Fold this protein.
Amino acid sequence: MGHYVIRVKGTLSRDLTDAFPSMTADTEPPQTVLHGYLDDQAALAGILNHLDMLGISIVEVLQVPPPANGH
């Protein structure tokens, strides 16, 4: 489907970011940025639903061009 960037409020712990194995997490205080390739809309919806269930506020969701090194 494409490469996505999901920006959330707060600094997520390692345990929380490990809950999203398809995504890489970077901390940009006061936010955390999850990014990675998602195969389909169901994968994106699953991540967004999981964040919501954990009470994590989603700030922004963007589909972006893939990084130069591929996925």
In short: The chain has one domain: 2-64. The mean pLDDT is 94. Residues 15 and 65 are 28 Å apart (CA to CA).
